[in-house]
Amino acid sequence: MSFDIEKGKKRFLALLNEISSERKGIEPLVAWLEKGDFFSAPLTANQRGAYKGGLLEHSLNVYMAYMMLFAQDNDPFSSVVLITLLHKLCRCGYFKLEQRTQLNEKGKWEQVPTYVVEDKFPLGGGEKSIYLIERFVRLKPEEAIAIRWHMGGLDAAAQNSSETISTAFDKYPLAAKLHAAYMYAAHIPQKT
Fold first, then answer.
1. Cβ distance 157 to 125 under 8 Å?
2. Is residue 84 within 8 Å of 178, Cβ to Cβ?
3. What dihedral do alpha carbons 43, 188, 17, 11 form, nearest 10°?
4. What is the DSSP letter of 45?
C-alpha cells in the first residue's frame, strides 16, 4: 500500500488541533494516541485496510467523504472532526503482528507477516470507541449515538433490533450521515 503515514498523521493532528480550543481534552487525547498504535494500526486483520496505517487512512477517508457529502449542512465542525476521525478508536491495541506460513505464487512455503485480532478490552466497537474518547473529551449525545451506530445495519446489534438503529438515525441525523460517509469511504476508492 502506498499510504503516506506521516502525511496522514499531520493532516489528522491538524484537524484535531483546529477544534482543540473549542473541545477540552484534545491535547491529552493526542498524547494518548501518540503513545499507542493508532497511527500505525491496520483497519482490519485481512480485508481492506489490513496494512500499517490502514486505520489512519480510513479515518481520514471517512472525514473527506463526510465533507464531500454533507459540508453544505453546516454541522458543527468539532462534531464532524470527532465522529469521523475517532469512530474506530476501538481498533487501538486491537491487533498484533504474527508470522504465518503460506504458499507463495511460486508454490514455495514462506513466512509472511499477518495481523491477528488480540482484543485486550472486548467491549464492542462503537461502545469501546465512545468509552476511549470520553476518557479525554466529553461527547455530545448526538456524537456518541453517531459513533455507536456508525456501521449501521452491519452492526450485529442492529441486525437484532432494526428499530433501535432506525430510531437513532431519525432522532440524530449526524448518526445517519456518519454511516453514509463510513460506507462511502469503505466502498469508493479515496485519495488521502
1. no
2. yes
3. 90
4. S
Q: What is the rounded CA–CA span in Å between residue 94 and residue 122?
A: 9
Q: Is the pLDDT of residue 192 over 80?
A: no
Q: How many residues appear in the chain? A: 192
Would you call 140 exposed, middle or buried from its count of C-beta atoms within 10 A (0-12, 13-18, 19+)? Answer: middle
Axis crossing angle, helix 54-70 with helix 5-19, rounded to the nearest 10: 50
- Per-residue pLDDT tens for 128-179? 999 999 999 999 999 999 999 998 766 666 666 667 888 899 999 999 999 9
Helix axes 54-70, 77-86, angle to 10 degrees: 150
Distance (Å, whole) CA 190 – CA 184: 9
Contacting residues for 188 by C-beta, under 8 A, at least 6 apart: 65
Tell the residue number behind the cell numbers 491535547, with chain if given.
27
Residue 19, CA atoms < 13 Å, CB-side half-sphere: 21
The position carrying cell 491496520 is 42
